[in-house]
Design a protein that fits this description.
Layout (H helix, E strand, L loop, with lengths): L2 E6 L9 E5 L5 E8 L5 E11 L5 E4 L4 E6 L1 E8 L3 H12 L6 E3 L2 E5 L2 H9 L3 E8 L14 E12 L5 E12 L2
Parallel strand pairs: 1-4, 2-6
Antiparallel strand pairs: 1-5, 3-4, 5-6, 7-9, 7-10, 8-9, 11-12
Family: Belongs to the UreE family.
Organism: Amorphus orientalis
Function: Involved in urease metallocenter assembly. Binds nickel. Probably functions as a nickel donor during metallocenter assembly.
Length: about 180
């Protein structure tokens, strides 16, 4: 079976041999057998799981490329009366570690009636739509299902010369799922 062992960024290849259409979860894989929309079967066999974006190419071991396309899926469009309000809503969504696709004037998230109720309670508007979902990669290098917890530690002391100063440091760690 043909293998795809590397990912080419969108725009870096021409004339794909086939296209594979996958939803958000289906585009975060390391190893899986896939069949393109045109029938080309291959094994995705990457060194580590990556978040494939719509437009990325999968380089097959015979030199051909299979284009990745984001499948439409059930989403909720979050909007607000002004950019500042939308920014506040983005903060609340981010505080819940939700994958979010940020566009001009709207935020797209996966459908979740509890989150929709929260957004409405904060004065935002929600509308259910079906669209491709390519959320922000975030600070953790893509869709990694990771959560980071920061722990800060600080201490201060004074010197005999009558002045004092503080030292602080922090570290983060992530939990991979």
């Amino acid at each position: 079976m043909l293998k795809a062992t590397s990912v080419l960024p969108a725009g870096s290849y021409a004339d794909p041999a086939d296209t594979v259409t996958l939803d958000f979860d289906g585009r975060h894989r390391r190893r899986i057998a896939l069949t393109g929309n045109g029938g080309l079967a291959f094994l995705l066999d990457l060194p580590q799981a990556v978040a494939l974006k719509s437009g990325d190419g999968l380089l097959l071991d015979d030199g051909r490329v299979v284009a990745v396309e984001a499948a439409p899926e059930p989403l909720t469009e979050v909007t607000a009366g002004d950019p500042h309000h939308l920014l506040r809503l983005a903060w609340h969504l981010g505080n819940r570690h939700l994958p979010a696709m940020i566009e001009d004037g709207r935020i797209l998230i996966r459908r979740d009636h509890v989150i929709s109720d929260m957004v409405r309670g904060l004065g935002g508007a929600v509308r259910d739509i079906d669209a491709p979902f390519d959320p922000e990669g975030g600070a953790y290098g893509g869709h990694s299902h990771s959560h980071s917890e920061a722990h800060g530690h600080a201490h201060s002391h004074s010197h005999g010369s009558g002045h004092s100063h503080s030292h602080s440091h922090s570290h983060t760690h992530s939990h991979e799922h």
